Records
---
Amino acid sequence: MSLTTGDKVVLIGTGAVGSSYAYALVNQGICNELVLVDLDTEKSEGEVMDLNHGLVYAHSPIKITSGTYAECKDAAIVVICAGAAQKPGETRLDLVSKNLNIFRNIIKSVMDSGFNGIFLVATNPVDILAYATWKFSGLPKERVIGSGTILDTARFRYLLSEEYDVAPTSVHAYIIGEHGDSELAVWSTANISGKLIAPNLTDARKEEIFVQVRDAAYQIIESKGATYYGIAMGLARITKAILQNEEVVLPVGSLLEGEYGHNDVYIGIPTVIHRAGRKDLVELLLNEDEQEKFANSVKVLKDIQASFWT
Ligand SMILES: NC(=O)C1=CN([C@@H]2O[C@H](COP(=O)(O)OP(=O)(O)OC[C@H]3O[C@@H](n4cnc5c(N)ncnc54)[C@H](O)[C@@H]3O)[C@@H](O)[C@H]2O)C=CC1
Ligand SMILES: CC(=O)C(=O)O
């Protein structure tokens, strides 16, 4: 069966992240049909009403409805933002059992609809849940994408843009690895217009910037209860890259099969995104320290996987 070709998006989970993503899609005119699904149907229906009331001022026409899993049948992309979120003091990995159970049911319901498109997963712990989506759905790896380190990389580029007074889009730098505490900054290739950043910063300053990136979620959750605008913009960016067949490189969650010397794990790495989902992985040349940190991040994720998949 060939890939569904329209640009219908079904969003599962219309909480803080899901509703912000829907709002970003409408404002940027990324798709022309959006269906909202949530266990709490009253909430998704309310979100649909609210979004529709802004349509007269939207970027371009879009049909927004609430629906059931049957709507996934002809969807190009199913985006999953459903499940539990971190409470203050919790790590992303604390959510694993709860959200794996939720995902078992969600993926089955989506696949039972006859879905033949691309999954984009945001629910945490996102790397484990992207892997679970790939396993539960039976879809090829190209059609299951996690949000990976799209948000962490955006945070990193923003902080470096502040450091150097240039636009974040002119900073070329990646956070890779787990979307979580074991992630790493690839300082060895981070640059502005080809000029390497690392030689101009002390180790102490680099560590300060990295810690700000790594711990941003904890800080935001402590101050306002949840993070959602940043990831919503990141998810909208990935959605646009897929629907517009951009072949752009984005740091998303992709399955490793020998790349970087590891396999059988979803993790945040630069990936070429096109209309069929993931195209190629871009293998960064990591230095020894980065390779060790990346290997540790893989191990953190694999140890968790091992307790759920033999
Ligand atoms: N990947 C990333 O970079 C980020 C991921 N997240 C994650 O996104 C997820 C959602 O976060 P929030 O929107 O803040 O949470 P939320 O609690 O505001 O929303 C979750 C929604 O999921 C729905 N839901 C729960 N079980 C469901 C099921 N079985 N079927 C359908 N809907 C169901 C709930 O009714 C609720 O509307 C969390 O796991 C959070 O950690 C949050 C920020 C960044
Ligand atoms: C909550 C989360 O995963 C983040 O903001 O990075």
---
Amino acid sequence: MSFLAPDNIIEVNNANIYQQASLVLSGLNFTIQKGEFVYIIGRTGTGKSSLLKTLYADLPLRKGQVHVAGFEVNQLLHREVPFLRRKLGIVFQDFQLLPDRNIADNLTFVMRATGWKNTQKIQQRITDLLQQVDLPGINKKFPHQLSGGEQQRVVIARALINEPMVLLADEPTGNLDPDMSEEILKLFQRINNSGTAILMATHDYEVLEKFPARVLKCANGVIEDLKVFP
Ligand SMILES: Nc1ncnc2c1ncn2[C@@H]1O[C@H](COP(=O)(O)OP(=O)(O)OP(=O)(O)O)[C@@H](O)[C@H]1O
């Protein structure tokens, strides 16, 4: 039996991360506290995405223990995974909005899938979320009518629907120019200031310099806790 310390949102103990038969990262030990902002850096192929996928139970953990938002990820049954995902917000590099639905319908789709039933409450939550990401009133627009940065902010709104305790972001600025990236980071800071922990994989050293925070570096099959960049 093991417990998540009350101030920790993520605990990783002696974990190995695999992709198929290959060991990508080994002997991982780190914790992330509630409300922390942490980057994962490392060259391409060093395992940043694989680590995030393990945290949201998209890759099985074969060795070690991982606790995320009160769930022991390595013990989760397949049917329990959605309960973990509801405690998380997940943001990827490619925006992954449904192209044939407007923004309100994109958000409603996820809300209904995660148990929201009351139409009035759904509409109110959409208004609040779009306000939160500085895109009020874009409900009826379609994804292709928005810039990349705007689409990414809608994705972030979608990730915030169920008030996650932690946001996992995989290269969220990977497809954006520097100004748009800065907007996304400012938004992340605001979200973080309101108490949501953020774990963000990135290659973007400009972002690290402008918005310094604790850094976990993936290299040579292990993770080094640099505390702060550089
Ligand atoms: N679906 C997969 N099947 C098999 N091997 C994979 C798969 N996805 C990734 N890998 C391998 O696992 C290793 C780690 O990849 P991963 O995507 O986690 O790295 P990354 O640091 O996130 O890279 P990038 O910055 O390019 O996204 C790489 O050697 C990669 O080739």
---
Amino acid sequence: MEKRGMIDTWIDKHRSIYTAATRHAFVVSIRDGSVDLSSFRTWLGQDYLFVRGFVPFVASVLIKACKDSGESSDMEVVLGGLASLNDEIEWFKKEGTKWDVDFSTVVPQNANQEYRRFLEALMSSEVKYPVIMTAFWAIEAVYQESFAHCLEDGNKTPVELTGACHRWGNDGFKQYCLSVKNIAERCLENASGEVLVEAEDVLVRVLEHEVAFWEMSRGGQ
Ligand SMILES: Cc1ncc(CNC=O)c(N)n1
């Protein structure tokens, strides 16, 4: 049995926003096959821009893992995540071609810009390792939970969208998210009350940004 840590406690406490982030109408529409392709194209273009901004964020997590973590394996987990972003960017480019989305003309919407500004603030050297690890876990876990849902039994996910769902919904990504969660939990066990307050706040804010991010797909432009 997995030990219950702070993160599970916080997820229970903030269950409604967690569900809003992991079962958004856009994700549910992929799963039930009713998805509007212009929404998917909007998400694809916005997420490509997001992921480009996520790379320096993960790089800053990597630096903290090297400097502030007492465990040498933390660095390897984060490095694995950074390496998979390399494949991910290539994947986005192929999808862009497939769906006729020209990334060079995509304009970041407000929710995207705000999310990226939030990530930039977290990249400061002042932000404590347990706090950035909690944020990192939440960002990855929302995509893992959302896209895994599109592949669960009974799905009617359109075959041309299963590539996206497998990217984040596969078992390897699930295991990787668990590794990040275990790192975060270990750090939180030894954190001060002040750091715990900060980590919980950052967790909720990630979930809010993720909801706002999915919401952009409604615009469908
Ligand atoms: C808005 C958002 N959140 C999380 C992820 C998943 N991490 C890397 O790909 C993502 N692609 N986009």
---
Amino acid sequence: MSDLLDINDLRAGYGEAVVIPKMTLQLGESQVLALLGRNGTGKTTLINSIVGVTRRFSGTLKLGGKDITSLRPDQRARAGIGWVPQERNIFRSLTVEENMTAVAQPGPWDVKKIYEMFPRLEERKNNFGNQLSGGEQQMLAIGRALTLNPQVLLLDEPTEGLAPIIVDELLAALGKITRAGGICSIIVEQNAQKILGLADRVVILERGTIVHDATSAALKSDPAVLEHFLGVAGAAGSKNKHAAGTPG
Ligand SMILES: Nc1ncnc2c1ncn2[C@@H]1O[C@H](COP(=O)(O)OP(=O)(O)OP(=O)(O)O)[C@@H](O)[C@H]1O
């Protein structure tokens, strides 16, 4: 399997602070990677570094064999980096449909296909971004990233703060999206057990460094690893996050 995303010796952070000292990570087509780790271990920083909104000290990034290291975030988006940030960042004063058509690029994912995936979005297509529930906003953020027809889809805690029934709906949709092929995904998720059912590979970070890289199947049969690296088997410290008020 050829690598769709190829991160090589990436050193990145903010200002003078190095959060990711030296990251090398490759992702093949259709691979779904769950990125886990305790709070503040650099998961969001890694996602943001692929998007291009952190400071890069050194290292390279390639997408589909093309060097994207020197591209700006908007150029990386057009090159095929789809991003669903933790804050969702939907356009609040545009309608659901306008949010998607504003950034659309040609490819298999068009608005019609996204409505098939998320019928709620079609029901709400003339509503403004600021009139949506949290779950609907997240569906829209995913739909908007897909209309770019990305090669890589980056999702930063897509289920955070959503009701369990919406979480299940979203994860089922993400399963369909990733099985449809053509893209690889990185999903940052606090709920390890839920994401193990969707991801085929799991990478655990500590201090911006990969400390464990395994298949989901291997992790499922060895829960002690999750316990060791995340503290709570299956729930990746989600309680600590809010107690500590950690930025993310
Ligand atoms: N904009 C920023 N400027 C400076 N430092 C930052 C910034 N954002 C994050 N950091 C620091 O970078 C480190 C990694 O944070 P990051 O948000 O990447 O971790 P995370 O694993 O995603 O954590 P969480 O689970 O809380 O989202 C932390 O020490 C954090 O304080």
